Protein 1
Amino acid sequence: MLWIFLIPVFLLGIITSYEDIRFGKIRNIFTYGFFALAIIMNVFMFVFYSIIGVQINYFYFLNLLINILIAIIIAFAFWWIKIWSAGDAKLFIAFSALLPLTFYSNNPVKYFPSFIILINTFVPLFLLNLIGVFASSFKTIKHIQIKEIIPIILIIFGFSWFSSSILGFFGLPSNYITNIVLIYLLFWIIAKISILEKYKLVFLIIFCIARLILDRTIFTLGFWKTFLLITLGFAFFRIFLRKSFDVLYVKHIAISKLKPSRVLDKSIIKSGKKYIIDNEKIKQKDYLVEATSEGLTRSDINKIKRYKKKLAFNKIPVLTTMPFAPSLFVGVIITIIARGIFINLI
């Protein structure tokens, strides 16, 4: 009976992918509507099984509810730190509610099986982009500075201490790749939260001192081998790839050619008597236009044009983004076929 859920899953994926490609947005009528449909279908299934006398697996529905709640929290967090637009976040929640837990059976993840959808979405997308990244590698290396490496060393030393515990809590394997991804995510969250970003160095030093005092494993050869590999991997993700993506996916366009929904690479903020482009965290009143995953509005564009004489630049860096709904839909399809992580298909 659970196979019937695939009908709305594919309908939602096809409709939202088309709309995201054609119009650049995902309408609430589909995300809210299919989420409500998922709830109705699960309630109907529960009642139907009760009526016909089929033994009900209460833990299934409890785990499904927990999965949906965590998906809502993760989606909200991704929207809040500007990784996703609101439409992308709501689409992920709808897919998490619609897809039965049996389709994660080959790689069950405790509490949050929809994490597999994220893996099957982002990893193939990352590998696809990696081809272009390596093509721009020589342009990137010359822009890397030593001062960018020091915070990375402190982050790895301080955070890797408990990353394995977090992975274990969710039933995920602890290895070089998963630790790098988790630490990168923590680093990203810190960068997006103003208070944490402001006192980042203080937090890192406290974590590092605590580890020096309490963790005896740092005096072993095995620790330094792991530390070196994770640091190199994280540095690759954080610096090399970020700068390569800038080369590939950041385009500088004239103010006269700005259009609604264009996503700014960095915010436009006040600096003295001029407005500059920067990602620095400032008071809300000092923003001319803040970079958000939702993109520019008509009002934002008019404001930029109105302050044109006070701008310290002639062109604005915007992201040459690709619609995310099709990528997320592909991640869901991979999950259904592999009944877990895409590696099962290899």
Protein 2
Amino acid sequence: MRVRANRRNPCRFRPPNLARASSDVRGAARGVGPYQISLTAPPPANECTTLLITGANLGHQLRYLVLPGDANMDATVSTQDLLFLIQRLNDGSANQPANLARCNINRSQEPSNRVNTQDLLRLVQLLNGTNATQPFNGATLAACPP
């Protein structure tokens, strides 16, 4: 799916394959930037969302791919992600700012212990399809269309 924004007008987009209004993408795209885009709901899993700015140089776009549970970022969800998360918890790097997006599997907001064993539990649930739209064990991330 593609989103087009104009530098002078805010971006508002409802993906055509989702009926929920909570999946809108909104952002203010004015002037030189930086730009801020707020999502009212997560992008759909295993899909590519592309944000294009009208009037920007050709090729300037933001592509966002979502694969829940892919902690080691190898484009596949497997037990290797569990091992990766355990290693990051043990060496203390799971809560470093650069690792929060991929290690905070349950998306907890507590500042004192953002990544913990609850994230391991959530990853096991994702692998098995518990409280998820599908079992993600073996799921792979497809490339964005050109």
Protein 3
Amino acid sequence: MQFVSFGGGRACVTLAIVFAWATASVAAPRFQQTDLFVSGQGGYYMYRIPTLAVMPGGTIVAIAEGRKTSASDSGDIDLVMRRSTDGGETWSDLEVLYEEGETAPITIGNPTPVVDQTTGALHVLFSRNNARLFVTSSSDNGVTFSAPTEITSVAEGFNFDWTRLGSGPTAGIQMTSGRLIAPIWLNETIGVPDTYRSGALVSDDHGQTWQAGQVVPVNADPTILGTNECAAVQLADGSLLLTERANGGTPGRARSTSTDGGSTWTPAARDSGINPQMTTVKTSIARYSLASEGSKNRILYSAPGATDRSHVTVWLSEDEAATWPTHREIHSGPSGYSELAVTAGKTILLAYESGDSDYRERITLARFNLEWLAGEPALPGDANEDDVVDAEDAAVLSAHWGQTNATWAMGDFNDDGRVDVADASILAVHWQQSLAEQALAVPEPAGAVIVLTGLPLLIWMAAGR
């Protein structure tokens, strides 16, 4: 055991470093699951179409369709929700976000939450009977919502003669420019796959108004005749990637890109990099981290891993969705639509339809970290995940010293929910170590003490700080 002191008087902190413990107590791979909506409970025959919104303050809002009397895509369908204020550990009771007509066969569906990180507002787009489009907003993390505003006329601006439409149904995103992106699908003739198109609504005034761009062209690949349910992510170069359900032609996935913020799109191209045998289904894509923010460029993708709606899997790309070499199965049984989100503390959330004999039995939330997904240990002390323990990580730890409900990204390297001396000792032991060197490194106690004493302002705790 080594003792090192920082400062003097009221600012003095003594670290007792037990090296074997410090190197063994870093965050381990974590995986937990919770059933959020169970069919047959809460007054609903079935729940489908999960979506997620992670608010700037950490509140998680899970939204789904509550189908009152049957599994049908039309009928008496409401938007229902649950909220969590502790990272998904506990959840509020089931609430109705919006419904019409009590028991009347009015379909309120296709939830598309869009979070504005600047204003803290949550905008939820939805369709009524797949014929009209509305948006409702919350300024208090989903506790209350405004009366819905109809924006059907906006969708008439698309360059496509549609008779049916639906937002998402998946979460929209906010670009680094501040623009809000809400995916949408349009349809000319129900049941005719080649009369579906994908696109996006955009807002440059924090959701006050919305505009339509152009639909994704389907004139480049003869195996893709129509696309619908889609999801967007912003790439590191600022462009948008849209992943689309390809119903017309050969079933599977299609992809398009936009360099003008979603106003126009490249023609739909076959995307076989995830699961080339994938059935038609709504999938999800989400940004995990960016190199420009001190980490790596990482994107997540969720979809069934089989030829049918089963074996839901999450993939990881570190080359901006060009390849997906890392993946892990979440549920081995029936599983359908899924929705990804990432918390500020880098916990990955996956809400997905699941069951034992039918994927529509429940909507489950899986929570896990990158270590579990990748099956590889994180570098202890690397708060910003740039694969080296350095002054930037020390600054993160110092800034969050003493905080509770902490995460790895805040300096909680031993996963006890607090940033304290134990985390400082872990950082010190691995100082200037890279991920490549980790397997070969054997910490020397004396050397670690020298490093620790040389960290300027690593930790200073004064009552008047």
Protein 4
Amino acid sequence: MARRTWMPTPTQAENDRAAEGEHVIDKEHDGSPILDDSGRERPPDPKPPDPEPEPEPLPPDISSITPTSAPLPDVELIVYASNYDDSASILFDGAAQPTVHVADGVLRAAISFAGLPGVYDVEVRDGLLLSNAVPFTFEPAPEPEPER
């Protein structure tokens, strides 16, 4: 039969401190506190510092778009941006557009718009993060040439 080593039972206060993450004072085998060189009870080990929080991710940042205006209804929009990953998409007037990742910092979307002429926001969404808005102007469609 294996020999069992007697361990002291912790006090309620020690259990409470342990539940809060504090290291409990070690005790001698008879349950008495461990004393330091001066004969006083050794203070508990300090609680280790909390780990550094992860830095907040930066939202995407649009530096420019090309073109900045076009006649209705279609345009191929190139967005130059940073701080996004492969899941990012271009938003036109708040609606996600099928987005192609052309190169680092370059996104492309073919926009077919059935709205009215005017200024609309272009943004990049990466997960829950949203970029700054850059204006794009849809101009009226050119009038068709009259038939002769």
